[in-house]
Write a structure and sequence with these properties.
single chain; 3 helices; 131 residues; globular; alpha/beta
Length: 131
Protein backbone atom coordinates (compact mmCIF):
# COMPACT_ATOMS: atom_id res chain seq x y z
CA UNK A 1 0.00 0.00 0.00
CA UNK A 2 1.54 3.39 -0.96
CA UNK A 3 2.61 5.66 1.89
CA UNK A 4 3.36 9.36 2.33
CA UNK A 5 5.36 10.55 5.30
CA UNK A 6 6.51 13.65 7.14
CA UNK A 7 9.01 13.74 9.94
CA UNK A 8 10.12 15.95 12.80
CA UNK A 9 12.15 15.68 16.00
CA UNK A 10 10.65 15.61 19.47
CA UNK A 11 12.12 17.50 22.43
CA UNK A 12 14.52 14.61 23.14
CA UNK A 13 15.78 14.42 19.57
CA UNK A 14 13.84 11.27 18.71
CA UNK A 15 12.72 11.12 15.11
CA UNK A 16 8.92 11.17 14.79
CA UNK A 17 7.31 10.16 11.50
CA UNK A 18 3.69 10.47 10.47
CA UNK A 19 3.07 7.91 7.75
CA UNK A 20 -0.08 7.88 5.62
CA UNK A 21 -1.33 4.60 4.17
CA UNK A 22 -3.75 5.15 1.33
CA UNK A 23 -7.00 3.17 1.18
CA UNK A 24 -7.30 0.25 -1.20
CA UNK A 25 -10.41 1.80 -2.78
CA UNK A 26 -11.59 5.36 -3.34
CA UNK A 27 -13.35 6.75 -0.22
CA UNK A 28 -12.29 3.64 1.70
CA UNK A 29 -10.50 3.47 5.05
CA UNK A 30 -6.94 4.73 5.07
CA UNK A 31 -4.52 4.86 7.96
CA UNK A 32 -2.13 7.31 9.57
CA UNK A 33 0.67 6.07 11.81
CA UNK A 34 2.97 7.86 14.22
CA UNK A 35 6.37 6.20 14.42
CA UNK A 36 9.03 7.01 17.00
CA UNK A 37 12.47 5.58 16.28
CA UNK A 38 10.82 3.33 13.67
CA UNK A 39 8.21 1.88 16.05
CA UNK A 40 4.49 2.51 15.48
CA UNK A 41 3.18 4.13 18.67
CA UNK A 42 -0.18 5.48 17.44
CA UNK A 43 -2.60 4.88 14.58
CA UNK A 44 -5.81 6.30 13.23
CA UNK A 45 -8.14 4.98 10.58
CA UNK A 46 -10.05 7.51 8.53
CA UNK A 47 -12.16 7.80 5.44
CA UNK A 48 -12.03 10.75 3.08
CA UNK A 49 -14.23 11.61 0.12
CA UNK A 50 -12.90 14.35 -2.13
CA UNK A 51 -16.15 14.46 -4.09
CA UNK A 52 -18.47 15.14 -1.16
CA UNK A 53 -15.79 16.78 1.04
CA UNK A 54 -16.35 14.49 4.00
CA UNK A 55 -13.97 12.97 6.49
CA UNK A 56 -14.74 10.33 9.12
CA UNK A 57 -12.29 9.47 11.89
CA UNK A 58 -12.96 5.80 12.53
CA UNK A 59 -10.40 5.03 15.19
CA UNK A 60 -7.51 6.58 17.12
CA UNK A 61 -5.30 4.32 19.18
CA UNK A 62 -2.14 5.22 21.10
CA UNK A 63 0.10 2.65 22.73
CA UNK A 64 -0.43 2.92 26.52
CA UNK A 65 3.27 3.63 27.11
CA UNK A 66 3.05 6.65 24.77
CA UNK A 67 -0.24 8.21 25.89
CA UNK A 68 -0.55 11.82 27.04
CA UNK A 69 2.34 12.92 24.84
CA UNK A 70 0.22 14.47 22.08
CA UNK A 71 0.35 11.62 19.56
CA UNK A 72 -3.45 11.24 19.38
CA UNK A 73 -3.83 14.98 18.85
CA UNK A 74 -1.09 14.88 16.21
CA UNK A 75 -3.03 12.17 14.37
CA UNK A 76 -6.31 14.10 14.56
CA UNK A 77 -4.59 17.23 13.24
CA UNK A 78 -2.86 15.24 10.48
CA UNK A 79 -6.16 13.63 9.49
CA UNK A 80 -7.94 16.97 9.23
CA UNK A 81 -5.02 18.46 7.31
CA UNK A 82 -5.72 15.87 4.59
CA UNK A 83 -9.22 17.34 4.10
CA UNK A 84 -9.27 21.05 4.98
CA UNK A 85 -12.77 22.48 4.82
CA UNK A 86 -14.35 19.01 4.85
CA UNK A 87 -17.36 18.05 6.94
CA UNK A 88 -15.71 15.98 9.72
CA UNK A 89 -17.25 13.39 12.03
CA UNK A 90 -16.27 10.35 14.10
CA UNK A 91 -17.72 6.93 14.65
CA UNK A 92 -19.29 6.12 18.01
CA UNK A 93 -16.78 7.01 20.72
CA UNK A 94 -15.27 4.57 23.17
CA UNK A 95 -16.71 5.26 26.62
CA UNK A 96 -13.46 4.54 28.50
CA UNK A 97 -12.08 7.22 30.78
CA UNK A 98 -8.97 7.64 28.60
CA UNK A 99 -11.10 8.14 25.50
CA UNK A 100 -13.42 10.61 27.20
CA UNK A 101 -10.43 12.60 28.51
CA UNK A 102 -8.84 12.65 25.05
CA UNK A 103 -11.93 13.95 23.26
CA UNK A 104 -12.69 16.53 25.99
CA UNK A 105 -9.20 17.98 25.46
CA UNK A 106 -9.46 18.30 21.67
CA UNK A 107 -9.89 21.63 19.91
CA UNK A 108 -9.75 20.56 16.25
CA UNK A 109 -8.99 22.98 13.45
CA UNK A 110 -12.15 21.95 11.61
CA UNK A 111 -15.59 21.41 13.19
CA UNK A 112 -15.93 17.79 14.24
CA UNK A 113 -19.20 15.96 14.93
CA UNK A 114 -18.45 13.40 17.62
CA UNK A 115 -19.99 9.96 17.84
CA UNK A 116 -22.12 10.03 14.71
CA UNK A 117 -20.37 9.26 11.42
CA UNK A 118 -21.62 11.24 8.46
CA UNK A 119 -20.72 8.81 5.69
CA UNK A 120 -21.42 9.87 2.12
CA UNK A 121 -22.65 7.42 -0.52
CA UNK A 122 -19.08 6.87 -1.80
CA UNK A 123 -17.90 5.88 1.69
CA UNK A 124 -20.88 3.60 2.17
CA UNK A 125 -20.12 1.91 -1.13
CA UNK A 126 -16.44 1.51 -0.14
CA UNK A 127 -17.61 -0.02 3.16
CA UNK A 128 -19.68 -2.58 1.25
CA UNK A 129 -23.01 -1.23 2.50
CA UNK A 130 -24.39 -0.83 -1.03
CA UNK A 131 -23.33 -3.49 -3.44
Amino acid sequence: MPADQADQLDDRGARILVVARRPAVRAGAGRLEVRVRGIVVAITELQLCGIDHRGVVRHIQVDPAHRRRGFGTLLLDAAQARGPGYHWSTVRLDQSEDSQDFWAYQDPAEPLHLGEPHYCTHMREANGEWV
